[in-house]
Design a protein that fits this description.
Blueprint lengths: L2 H4 L3 E6 L4 E5 L3 E3 L2 E4 L5 E3 L4 E7 L1 H22 L5 H14 L7 E8 L3 E6 L5 E3 L3 E5 L2 H11 L6 H18 L9 E6 L2 E4 L2 H8 L1
Helix pairs in contact: 4-5
Length: 206
């Protein structure tokens, strides 16, 4: 994998019993410089699909705009909401068609239509359907060590939030490219997307 994709962040996604939890650190880096400690790294695409980004901010934001526009057109043309899988496939097609001049990005796409779904995509459009959890960025190994030890099948939404925060915090502690003032967390259910506020994050971090 391109080293530029591996540096600069830690993002995780977890499948819970009736939801998907996405979490990310908040440090944006330029080489070895921490350029921003309050960067946004999780974005909603629809009211039941969201994604994390790692890599080039400009490339990520351009693709997020494409996805949001496509989701709206999909709903108008088909009179139904776009699915999580269709979103991941559309993104995969864009990435693969540009593989010789790639978008320098890595995404985790999560959402709930009939059930919680989670997909991990690389810069060439490769798609992995994750049944448990996904991780991207420079803090991958550190976050994975926490998830590998503590994740269990049928995890509740509350347990998934706590575990996602713990995984990102583990990376923030030892990975110099991950950090920031806090952790960003989004929870996706059939009812919609909820971004945790600072007080909620503190309560799950204890």
């Amino acid at each position: 994998m391109n080293e530029e994709i591996k540096t600069g962040t830690t993002t995780v996604g977890l499948i819970a019993k009736d939801s998907v939890v996405l979490a990310a650190d908040m440090r944006a880096s330029m080489g070895h410089l921490a350029s921003d400690e309050e960067a946004k790294k999780i974005y909603n695409i629809t009211d039941n699909i969201a994604m994390t980004n790692a890599g080039s901010v400009g490339d990520s934001l351009a693709l997020i705009r494409y996805l949001r526009s496509h989701a709206k057109l999909y709903e108008v043309e088909r009179e139904t909401k776009i699915t999580v899988k269709a979103t991941a496939v559309f993104l995969s097609n864009i990435l693969n068609s540009n593989r010789f001049y790639p978008f320098l990005v890595q995404f985790i796409v999560g959402g709930v239509n009939n059930k919680p779904e989670l997909y991990e995509l690389d810069l060439s459009g490769g798609v992995l359907d994750r049944k448990k959890y996904a991780v991207s960025g420079s803090g991958t190994e550190l976050a994975l060590s926490v998830l590998d030890q503590q994740y269990k099948e049928g995890i509740t939404k509350e347990e998934a939030i706590k575990l996602a925060i713990a995984a990102v915090n583990a990376a923030k502690k030892r990975d110099i490219y991950s950090g920031g003032v806090s952790v960003t967390v989004m929870v996706i259910t059939k009812q919609g997307i909820h971004e945790l506020n600072e007080e909620e994050i503190k309560s799950y971090s204890n």
